[in-house]
Structure formats: structure tokens, C-alpha cells
């Protein structure tokens, strides 16, 4: 399982994340203090407070099929 803090503060970032998660063969979730939302759900993501970074969890490991492509699409959203 991979965890990354991401910033999805714009509509374009949400749209890109949902598209990448929908194309992925693994589960991608977004976690906040009190909610967990499937990253394939645009309505679920819009229900979250996106004004600050959120935690993205990916049910895959580095090197698994599709992980590199997924990060190539959403890697710019990662904050450390």
C-alpha cells in the first residue's frame, strides 16, 4: 500500500485524479480526518474539504502494473 499527501484544490486536479483512478486496476482512496472516499467518485471528492492537502492511499506497490502511469498523471499533486 502506498500513501501520499496530495493537493487537489482545483476542479482540474479533481478531474485528473478521478480519471487516473478510474483507469487504474487498483483501488485509490482519499482520506481526511473523518472521511474516506473512493477516488473514482467525483461527487465524493467534492464533498471533502479540499482547501488543504489530503491523504491518498493506493492499494498497490511500487513497480506494480499501472502504478508508474498513475503517478505520471497525478505526481504533480503530491506535497511533502
Write up this protein.
The chain is an alpha+beta fold and 80 residues long. The chain has 3 helices and 4 strands. A hairpin with a 4-residue loop joins strand 2 (28-31) and strand 3 (36-38). The longest helix is centred in the first third of the chain and has 13 residues, at 11-23. The chain is globular.
Short synopsis of the structure:
The chain is an alpha+beta fold.
Attribute tags:
four-stranded antiparallel sheet, alpha+beta, Histidine-containing Protein, Chain: A, 80 residues, 3 helices, 4 strands
Helix proportion: 25-40%
Structural class: alpha+beta
Which class in CATH terms? Alpha Beta
Order of strands, widest sheet: 1-4-2-3
Q: Whole-number average pLDDT? A: 93
* Terminal residue distance: 18 Å
**CATH structural architecture:** 2-Layer Sandwich
| Strands, total number | 4
Return residue spans where pLDDT drops below 50 for at least 5 consecutive residues: none
What is the gyration radius calculated from CA atoms? 11 Å
Layout of helices and strands:
Layout: E1 2-6, H1 11-23, E2 28-31, E3 36-38, H2 42-46, E4 54-58, H3 67-74
Antiparallel strand pairs: 1-4, 2-3, 2-4
Amino acid at each position: 500500500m502506498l500513501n501520499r499527501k496530495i493537493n487537489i484544490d482545483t476542479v482540474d486536479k479533481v478531474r485528473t485524479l478521478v480519471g487516473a483512478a478510474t483507469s487504474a486496476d487498483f483501488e485509490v482512496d482519499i482520506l481526511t480526518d473523518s472521511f474516506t472516499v473512493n477516488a473514482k467518485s467525483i461527487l465524493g471528492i467534492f464533498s471533502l474539504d479540499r482547501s488543504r492537502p489530503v491523504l491518498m492511499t493506493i492499494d498497490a506497490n511500487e513497480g506494480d502494473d499501472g502504478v508508474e502511469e498513475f503517478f505520471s498523471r497525478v505526481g504533480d499533486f503530491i506535497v511533502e
